[in-house]
Design goal:
Number of strands: 18
Distance between the termini: 41 Å
Bound molecules: pyridoxal-5'-phosphate
Strand content: 15-25%
Strand order of the largest sheet: 4-14-13-12-9-5-6
Order of helices and strands: HEEEHHHEHEHEEEHEEEHEEEHHEEHEEH
Length: 446
């Protein structure tokens, strides 16, 4: 039974509302009293209150911070016009404008846009689209996907099937998931920025060559059944915050070309500047056939994602039996979400180059202290992403609390305490985040 009104929110929440990947009787959540700028005001289950810099940017979305005046104005303006209309047979300025913007800014010659209502659904659409594309070319048997281990592409069934087969919940759904073709995870790499500001990638070249030497024959073996390569470019996010060399993406582009596969890049986490390029595919100078974007697309205001594709892909589907991309969510191209996305994308374009390298430099500088801690296996940064990897699983409850006492909200997973902060964090706020992470790890995993 729900508790009487007036009881703490966390108690009313407990046993009533599911939280992501959490049991109903899991640790009680913190209640958000407010969110403004880059700060959250939180009440702990025991009543203690915290003001914390959001080192998570609400799962990597809120790049411009909360109650951003530009995004607020865009939302208000659109609410005063209309918040939603169906997209079947109708169109509107916010959607068309956003499609124009996205095709202009995306890497490679993107010609068409399909709007979806979440990242996972955009991945579903991209996978569906690949099957339709192959069928249109007279290759209906090509229904599987080549991907790499360690990936994360969402929680719906087709998206789950291309997530890491060990860590990606496959064991919970035996028999229900399509069986995809998994190449090894690309070897780790590191982006090193010299004092003069030049970037160069470091990796174990022998390991990279060995990886490529496994991927090519794998594609050859399955060539007649593969429709596409699906991959997160350069940074694997929820699959382990793993950074790999852009050359691996180039190899996957070559493999795709050799075997007539589409290259689908999932830029849902990496898009809009996060890795230090507007899109992570740009690190490899690779032009994908299909791109999924989401997360930061609306600056964290509303759920929206998009699938971008080349003219060639669009043409093939147009010539096919069905002529249409066989998908159509109820809230497709929601005008309110599109209006905020237009404002957010414009802000990204005008500000990311000022913010991301600055945030990245400060994270690298202030997180480096973690490398000397006893249970830390690795410290790495890429763009506005900072990762401290431990030698064993993180004590999430205690590290969360220890970070909050230092004014920082983090949500560690597995052996990782990481940050993907809002781009608009001041130098001081980035320092608070990094010192909070290092201090919390030092205290809890002493
Ligand atoms: C978050 C994420 C998704 C899923 O997006 P949702 O909006 O949560 O469905 C897919 N791919 C990547 C790379 C992601 O980071």
């Amino acid at each position: 039974m729900p508790d009487a009104p007036g009881s703490p929110l966390a108690v009313r929440d407990g046993g009533l509302v599911w939280h992501p990947y959490a049991p109903l009787d899991g640790p009680e959540p913190y209640a958000v009293e407010g969110a403004s700028g880059v700060r959250l005001t939180l009440t702990a289950p025991d009543g203690e209150r915290f003001e914390a810099v959001d080192a998570m940017a609400s799962w990597w979305c809120a790049v411009h911070g909360y109650r951003n005046p530009v995004l607020d104005a865009a939302a208000h303006e659109q609410v005063d016009r209309f918040s939603h209309v169906m997209f079947g047979g109708l169109t509107h300025e916010p959607a068309v404008r956003l499609a124009e913007r996205l095709t202009e800014m995306a890497p490679g010659p993107m010609a068409h846009v399909f709007f979806a209502d979440s990242g996972s659904v955009s991945v579903e659409v991209a996978l569906k689209l690949a099957l339709q594309y192959q069928a249109a070319l007279g290759r209906p048997n090509r229904q599987r996907f080549l991907t790499v281990r360690g990936g994360y592409h969402g929680d719906t069934f087709a998206a789950m099937s291309v997530c890491d087969p060990v860590d990606g919940m496959h064991s919970a759904f035996p028999g229900a998931l399509a069986r995809q073709v998994f190449a090894p995870r690309p070897p780790a790499a590191r982006l090193v920025t010299t004092p003069t500001g030049e970037d160069h990638w470091e990796t174990d070249r022998l390991a990279l060559d060995a990886w490529a030497a496994e991927v090519r024959p794998l594609a050859q073996t399955h060539t007649d059944e593969l429709a596409a390569v699906v991959v997160e470019p350069v940074l694997q996010g929820a699959g382990g915050m793993h950074v790999y060399h852009p050359d691996c993406l180039r190899v996957l582009r070559e493999v795709a070309d050799e075997h007539g596969l589409l290259l689908v890049v999932d830029e849902i986490a990496t898009g809009f500047g996060r890795t230090g390029r507007l899109f992570a595919s740009e690190w490899a100078d690779v032009a994908p056939d299909v791109i999924c974007v989401g997360k930061a697309l609306t600056g964290g205001y509303l759920s929206l994602a998009a699938v971008l594709m080349t003219r060639e892909v669009g043409d093939a589907i147009t010539r096919s039996e069905f002529r249409a991309l066989l998908h159509g969510p109820t809230f497709m191209a929601n005008p309110l979400a599109c209006a905020v996305a237009n404002a957010s994308v414009e802000l990204v374009e005008t500000t990311w180059k000022d913010h991301v390298p600055r945030v990245g430099r400060l994270l690298a500088e202030h997180l480096s202290a973690a490398a000397a801690l006893p249970h830390v296996a690795d410290v790495r940064t890429l763009g506005a992403v900072g990762v401290v990897q431990l030698t064993s699983p993180v004590d999430v409850t205690r590290v969360t609390r220890a970070a909050l006492r230092r004014g920082v909200w983090v949500r560690p997973f597995r052996d990782l305490v990481y940050t993907m902060p809002p781009y608009v964090c001041t130098d001081d706020e980035v320092r608070v985040i990094a010192e909070g992470v290092v201090g919390a790890v030092a205290e809890v995993h002493a």
